[in-house]
């Protein structure tokens, strides 16, 4: 079964607006067992719209469009669909009655131009719009079913669920459901992860497994289909188990969970607390931890020790240590971690000091050089990262924060060598 | 001139991820006089990709693709483009050298599978990627120019501007330019701003002015076209001058500059320093300040005083004041601001304490109640914000951080009552 989308609007092709209907429809259709193969975004041009409807109806069993159903001159979907199907436009009295009733409910006279919204291609039927003036269209063109929905996301979503889904089921199009599960890991590069999982990502494997990378976090995306959600999830389970067995401690969480969520989960499961001392990450670790609700039992706080005086005044790092080793050094990272742990009475102290750039680098301490410090009751240790030199500042800050949190997470789980 | 886009990735057609490269490319190409007619989003399927490249190259003069250039098995762009053009793949030694050099700079061995990224269709040339492993491709197919860029947005944007734009100009494809200028302000609602600018936002005005709101920041977007960038910018200037005159101190910056950039500019222009004490914002203010390069002369650091002990231990807030007034109170906000100012020897101390939710609210102190504290040599003051109760935690944190930074900015500029 092939489904495809036509997303219509010149405000989209000009780049002024970001379309989100396409993603929503892709996700909803996939869940109905109707995966989308193509989405075409196009402007308010009649010839382009006719060609797009023709091409889509010629190669897919289901075509869903968004936009172009309003009352203005640049709303061309009715026209384009009729011309693509080789039929004329006719007035639908039910649609006209609905539009008139909507204006009556709002105590406003119906502008003449809204009558155009009651026109539909011959042979089509309408999809009622419970909240707006634009009715949708439901039609067979060649062997394809075509559904036209308005571009307003709230209207599109309500009509999809209330009007289109029952018609898809009645037409025997929507059957099986497709469900996805995402497992996120950190600490290996994308190609290293794939090298350890060629059996999982092989083309044609069932269930299908994809790998994506975002800001250093690698995600396995598993998708399976079934007669219902429970069946599809059950098909995913053995693959998820392989990933959990093979990547074990590298896994930070599922869904949208990233390293910070993994660290907080490890803190909660071990009953430990952590305090952070941040130089080059400038508060990003504290921010990522405190975005999560309910962390106060495990996170007393932190220090952003940007200036050397902050390192000595707030963390008790000796001035002569900074003078002898430099602020970006393993010794200072360890002293920061010890200092913040002691000052805040935490079980763990985690520190980051480095050169985030783009300025401030030197041949000995280039942009991207970062030292992490980790202190607990038994003492402190440090770790060196090289995250530059060509990466932008915000990437270096983000990666450094993730490496630091992941290191603390592994320490909590007893997984450090 | 017809341009079109191919946006490749099964994580997009499945609805798991929202594409933003398409909008960015549409906007940038429109600015080069190359409006996009079609954007096709498609999955990692070889036949679909070959067909999409063939169709695009057959009807458009410029085709830009995003994604599918990584080292894994589901990265099919190289293959698909070669098959669409009817040629084979060859190794590009320059590309291989670049990939090897990137791994060498990162002191990591190059996995064998990354060699595949140095393959390009016969007759193509590479688009160097300054920050990632995936080189782009630049090729003529029939009469169309085809540019393949990686899907990572940061890499795509850098390569578009640095590598593709010069080639488009050299090929005589880029013509009249459309230029935009964005002026950002904070402290008024979108409808209040619009009510003060009906002359600017009138339809048909030249240059065109739009208003958008994002996370409390209101942006005027002015667009004009010209034979070159200088001419287009000159057309924008008188409108920008009206906005600056009318909104004066509300303006925090241009382009991507937001409240943090406005605060740092005010610190630099006045030669003052600021230290921050954050409870409910949890490091977000420090993070937003330290995202900006070169702030160490104006920002010594801060404290994330999430637990009450952190407020007393690191900021010297008296325990009995917290017990008497509560951690979320004007008195504690002022004491936090005074404490961080003194401890870090800064000119200004800025503090935030509040209830970010979703839990922890009470009838007297509901979710969204936030107190700001601001201290300087003459003493401390506080301000009450009500940002909830129905907003999510991350929105309350973001708005509180912006209100705090904007308050400090206005204080530095001598604009507080």
Automatic annotation (TrEMBL), chains A, B:
* Transmembrane regions listed in the UniProt entry: none
- Top-rank taxon of the source lineage equals Bacteria
SMART domains in the record: MoCF_biosynth
Q: Which residues form the MoaB/Mog domain?
A: 4-171
Recorded hits in InterPro entries, A to Z, give: CinA (IPR050101), CinA-like_C (IPR036653), CinA_C (IPR008136), CinA_KH (IPR041424), Competence-induced_CinA (IPR008135), MoaB/Mog-like_dom_sf (IPR036425), MoaB/Mog_dom (IPR001453)
Q: Which family does it belong to?
A: Belongs to the CinA family.
The protein in question is named CinA-like protein
Q: Write the lineage as a comma-separated list.
A: Bacteria, Pseudomonadati, Planctomycetota, Planctomycetia, Isosphaerales
